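Good day; I would like, with your permission, to put a structural problem before you. The record follows directly beneath this note:
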Amino acid sequence: MSMHTFLLTAGLALASGAVAAQSYEIRYQDAYTSNHQIIANDYGSIAGVIDLLHTSPGGANLLFWADSYSGRPAAYSPSSVGLVTLTPAAGLTVTLDSFFLGGWPNADRNISYSIDDLATPGIDISVNAAFVAGSTGLVVTPALTSATGLRISFGPDGFNGGINNIAFSIAAVPEPESYLMLLAGLGLVGAIARRGARSRAAT
């Protein structure tokens, strides 16, 4: 079963309320095989759950390369910078768990990257010239969450630096009633603990 099919199946379960949260991973090699193949802008999107956009600042599509990005296939940009934007549907949040950066052709590279929470002004995480080993690549674990969207930027040499294995999680935004129930439950637990402490002190 392809990753795209997996994503769709998991997304339907989430949309129906069968699960509270679901993890996903974008693996470009599950849909693309040929070098320089154009990656669809919306690859991995799931209607009603998450919209993905793979592009460059000028709007050009990212391209696929089958190997040699620190030993893995990757998406690369035909311009200076590559962008991947993850936008959750209304009522959901997206958490960016991790992604892989590799250097072509299996070469050490200094690749800058940033992650922007689109709900706030400015870049939330910015790393200039991160060392990416040609033999192993670099796994970035930002663990950022947003109900508006997250954008990964990598470059400035987006041709010799590629991205893959974008792992993220989707969860429902907790309703206000959920917070009230949680607080009430914690209060009840605290009251029971206090009563137990008084009973032990009396004996």
